[in-house]
# Entry
Amino acid sequence: MLTKFLDFFGWARANSPWMVHYCSGCCSLEILALMGPRFDWERYGFLPVPSPRQADFIVITGLISRKVLPVLLMTYDQMPKPRYVFAIGSCAFDGGPYYDSTSVVTNVPEILPPDVFVAGCPPTPEAILEGLLEMKKIIREKREARAEKEGTWREILKQELEKNPLLSQQPFFVGG
Ligand code: SF4
# Structure
């Protein structure tokens, strides 16, 4: 009985994944396009939520600056497990056009490896939607999140908090 209930819970979760994101790069405009009437992603069950506490996955929308990195990691840290990462845009892979900038993080996939990555600068809404459907599949199959087993985010977050202890006292309200 309990197994059946958990199966049902997993099925419901996979069919309506909640995501937390904040606009860290210009790729986020393509997310807005997905929310609009042309693509209407809510018909696939996707729902943006303003709090990481209820989110199934986090979206990295392109560029991550050094200032934003601790916020990204703290947000991920607050999500319940299993927690997945969805990344879009070449900036989220290697810094993209800002590959030689000193203020941009160029190794995000090493720190927080994405379970799904959609390439492009920016990727099209169609490509992002395809990636999101893949994310649904990953959630349905309850695959192990890559960031949990491969990512260095815990150590990096610890270093960031040691550098700036005030960060841990910030109420981060993301996405809303
Ligand atoms: S990949 Fe291109 S569109 Fe996306 S954040 Fe970077 S510069 Fe902007």
